[in-house]
Amino acid sequence: MTERDIDRSDAIEVLEGYIDEVSRRPDADDLSPVDLKRDWASDL
Questions:
Q1: What is the C-alpha separation between 4 and 23, in angstroms, rounded?
Q2: What percent of the chain has pLDDT over 70?
């Protein structure tokens, strides 16, 4: 594996974790993609 492959797999793991976390939120059905992007960016 190259360093780029490792970075990509790390990023995928982070995003999968974020998706799991957001899907458990009580307001998950009401969130738009823009809301999700804003929330994700604020967590960085």
A1: 28
A2: 84
